[in-house]
Amino acid sequence: MKKLSVIALVGIGLFAASCNKEKSAENAATAQEQSVAESKGEVLAIDTVASVVNWKAFHKGGMAPRWGTLSVKSGDLSIENGNVSAGNFVIDMNSIKVDPASVTEKDKKPADLETHLKTPDFFDTAKNPTSDFKITSVTDLKEAPKDAVAGANKTVSGNLTLSGKTMNVTFPAKVDVAEGSASIQAKFTVNRADWGIKFGTSEADPAEWMISKDIEIAVDVKAKK
Question: Is the pTM value of this prediction over 0.90?
């Protein structure tokens, strides 16, 4: 019976993978940590009230997606010659929220998932209460990928720190600069295993790898004088 159940589980996973799209954003290019861009020109403080990081995670095959938000704690953007040239923002990992609309199973509760995400299985917020992103470069984007955020006009690279590990990520973004303000919007997907977050990724037992490694991140960061 157990063998039959495992075979059935694998079949369901493969069928779902063929019928569903796990993510709606392109994978960010990842590399080792790089030198952070030097802050020059006018420095604008991140508007922590208007800024937010949205996240979305999946089970294999796109089944039972979960999504929610994270708060931006602090940061700034540097403006030089009318362009964002450097900057950073800090994310409060203890602020992680699960949207109740994403938890439809009667035996599941958003609060339970929020608690689990804060444990060492995932982000270990007691040890790593914050994550951060530090810009390493901003360049013009010639042609935006089809899954890029609407209006993408720049390629942004930066060091993303999750659970105490730092990797450089590169993704298309919409970067706007106006008098006394600036904003960065982006949507991209990362493989959490690259940051050592490997809970549920073992393929030794199908029951243990039904959680996708992909995390979709949508950044909406605003800065002002």
Answer: no
